[in-house]
Design a protein that fits this description.
The complex is a heterodimer. By secondary structure, chain A is mainly alpha-helical. Chain A contains 17 helices and no strands. The longest helix of chain A is centred in the middle third of the chain and has 26 residues. Classes of the chains: A mainly alpha, B alpha/beta.
């Protein structure tokens, strides 16, 4: 700060007039070019400059061209940065640091197009189920026994819904969908940290619409809750296996395993119990815990050479 | 094209504003030491028992396609791991997680294929990579993005989508992201690929004025770029190091084997018509009426690669 040229005392007039300006001293203009004035004095000088040729001459003589060039470059760079999108604004309002939101916004499965795709799949499932329970396409709910769920209508949703978060997690770390993965692999940012942050974000962004769709289905309300553990278990299993085998093989294998389990082994009558029953919940919890342990134990594989 | 801002000019002010300073060498050890490095892809041996010891400076890595250059650079950039061998970068061992992190903090890497998200603008891409390089403070990051943009003369393209850039501009953008954070070690895979002659000259200027005097390992097919800026050269052929020394020593590989003659000599290992209409021959025996000439580094490289072909060194 320049003494005597601040908010309390106003401009120091010492030296004013000696170079053709009767209002400001040359030193004040020089301090302005150096960026050492306090904000109030800066505003005063800026207000004065347009009307004073002598002060503008001092400004031109003392301006650091390289500093101006750097400022211009920084300004252009900032202009080139896009405004945060819907997800970014939402995350920042939730207190997520700015740099984390930038990383998350680049996640393929958090892009608007991906989320729109998820919503479309869910909407198709819900609308199909609704039509199946309404005349003239299906049996009205009133004709069924009270409290009885028509599982044949809900089954397709049960099979597909837990796979949506799995697909989102896979997309978040898929080299074809994350083309900057090679740069990420050589960067000091912790892949383990990135994995956790992105996984939590994409699971949350996918599970919320899945839960809302489950509530809209003509089934029990607890269906939305019971989908949570199988979905998390599938994601965890895929990430854990990806530390042992190629990520694409791990995700495909887990998805195929889920389909075989709920369709092939359980059979039409056993479908609900296989997907959302107590045994399935306990199994999913066990798989999830084992997966977390595996990922933690193999974290160095994630940090080094996982994608390479 | 506007004048490229010299790194010294742009770097002299913005890094201070960004709170960034060039990293100092961690130790007095060689910048890079590789011992008996081997990497296989199935039955293909990409690197076969490679040993290298490189001091600080700008090092050129020459070799034909498929010689193992990209594999070697990926391992040195800690993106891939070797099947066998020991490695030391800037005095750190990448096999140790904590030391690997220290290497990555000091590393700038330009891969052969620069991946980017389609929706990224130039500035957004650099901002993203800067975050990956742990520059989390937004003000410091934006100043650093501006510095590297100016260094590669892309400031005016900050708002452009990457997919709209020409191949040469994308290469310069790749170089810009490698320069983020003023790395102590720069690993550049084909940095001049797609650049026009003027841009290549500016690339040389940029390399020779990098702040902090980093060690640069530069893989290229352009022998003249190597002789222009590199203090030493490594020639990799069929996954093996066939030469490591100065550009002058590389040229000396062809001493007494380069001839100029009026006629083509079918017995020469290599021959081509020079701009003045005479034939330049590389071979042990002089063609009839030929005069011996001083070899260039390119001649030395051709002798080495020709020798490798005759020896049948295979991967």
């Amino acid at each position: 700060m320049t003494g005597g040229f601040g908010v309390t005392g106003g401009p120091d007039m010492t030296g004013a007039g000696s170079f053709g300006c009767s209002i400001l001293p040359a030193a004040a203009v020089v301090s302005y070019t150096d960026g050492t004035l306090d904000p109030a004095s800066e505003w005063s000088v800026e207000a004065h400059l347009p009307g004073c040729k002598a002060c503008r001459a001092v400004l031109a003589a003392h301006t650091d061209a390289s500093r101006l060039e750097a400022n211009r470059a920084e300004l252009l760079a900032r202009i080139g940065l896009p405004e945060p999108g819907l997800i970014g604004r939402l995350l920042r309002r939730c207190g997520v640091p700015e740099h984390v939101t930038v990383l998350l916004e680049a996640t393929p499965s958090l892009r608007r197009s991906w989320l729109a795709g998820v919503l479309l799949v869910l909407a198709v499932a819900v609308v199909t189920a609704k039509l199946a329970t309404s005349p003239p396409f299906g049996v009205p709910a009133l004709l069924r026994e009270p409290g009885q769920t028509d599982w044949a209508i809900v089954d397709p949703f049960l099979v597909v819904a837990p796979l949506l978060p799995l697909a989102a997690v896979a997309a978040a770390f898929s080299p074809p969908l994350d083309p900057a993965y090679r740069l990420t692999s050589a960067a000091p940012v912790s892949m383990m940290w990135l994995l956790c942050v992105r996984t939590v974000a994409v699971i949350a962004a996918t599970l919320i619409p899945v839960a809302l769709a489950a509530l809209a289905l003509p089934g029990p309300l607890w269906l939305a809750v019971t989908l949570l553990l199988p979905a998390l278990a599938l994601c965890g299993a895929a990430l854990g296996l990806a530390t042992l085998i190629r990520p694409a093989v791990a995700v495909t294998g887990v998805a195929a395993g889920w389909m075989v389990l709920v369709i092939g082994l359980a059979g039409p009558a056993g479908m609900p119990s296989a997907a959302v029953g107590m045994a399935a919940q306990l199994t999913a919890a066990a798989v999830l815990l084992a997966s977390i342990a595996l990922v933690a134990a193999r974290r160095d594989t994630i940090n080094y050479g996982w994608m390479g | 094209m506007t004048k490229m801002v010299r790194t010294g000019e742009a770097g002299g002010t913005a890094p201070a504003a960004a709170g960034l300073t060039p990293r100092r060498p961690a130790t007095a050890r060689p910048a890079l030491q590789v011992e008996e490095l081997t990497r296989r892809y199935g039955r293909t041996v990409a690197l076969n028992d490679v040993s290298l010891r490189l001091e600080r400076g700008i090092v050129g890595l020459l070799g034909p396609n498929g010689a193992g250059k990209t594999t070697l650079l990926s391992i040195l950039a800690t993106v891939a791991s070797p099947d066998a061998g020991r490695l030391s970068l800037l005095g750190y061992d990448p096999a140790e997680p904590a030391e690997r992190l220290e290497i990555r903090r000091r590393l700038g890497f330009l891969p052969q294929d620069l991946g980017y998200h389609r929706h990224f603008t130039v500035a957004a891409f650099l901002d993203y990579v800067a975050i990956l390089k742990e520059i989390t403070n937004s003000r410091a990051r934006h100043a650093e993005v501006a510095r590297v943009l100016a260094a590669v003369d892309l400031t005016a393209k900050a708002r452009a989508r990457i997919r709209t850039l020409s191949g040469g501009m994308r290469r310069r953008l790749g170089l810009a992201q490698a320069l983020l954070g003023m790395p102590e070690l720069l690993i550049l895979d084909e940095p001049v690929s797609g650049l026009d002659p003027e841009q290549r000259l500016r690339f040389r200027e940029l390399l020779s004025q990098l702040p902090g005097d980093p060690t640069v390992l530069l893989a290229t097919h352009q022998v003249e770029d190597v002789t222009a800026v590199c203090s030493s050269v490594v020639v990799l052929l069929a996954g093996q190091v066939r030469f490591c020394g100065s550009p002058a020593a590389l040229a000396a590989q062809a001493d007494g084997r380069v001839w100029l003659a009026a006629e083509r000599d079918a017995a020469a290992e290599l021959s081509w018509r020079a701009g003045d209409g005479r034939w330049r021959h590389i071979g042990a025996a002089p063609p009839p009426g030929a005069g011996i000439v001083a070899p260039t580094a390119e001649d030395g490289y051709l002798v080495l690669s020709g020798t490798a072909g005759r020896d049948g060194a295979a991967s």
